[in-house]
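Whether sequence alone determines local backbone shape is best considered at the level of individual chains. When preparing material for the folding task, we compiled for one chain both its residues and its backbone structure tokens. The sequence in question and its structure tokens are set out directly beneath this paragraph.
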Amino acid sequence: MLGLILPVVSLLFCSLVEFIFQQAERFSKSAYEKAVGMKYRWAEGDAADLLGEIYSVRGDKAKGRKWLKKAVGCRKEILDPKVKETERKLNKIKD
């Protein structure tokens, strides 16, 4: 019986994690688009940083780098002190 339960629980857990990542991606993209539309650079940098982290954790390094670079550029323009943290995240992504 236990041999049957573990694979089911594992599958449910993986499905839940994937769902959470999809929702995080969707809400972060929406936040980014709204921030750009309102010219709210602080929120734009935060949303781009979060998208970079989401893609990096999911293994999509190219998209992760792309979003983290956007975040770095935005944060440099507004002199956001979080730019160093974002640069560290960007430098951690290996090919």
In short: The longest helix spans residues 2-38.
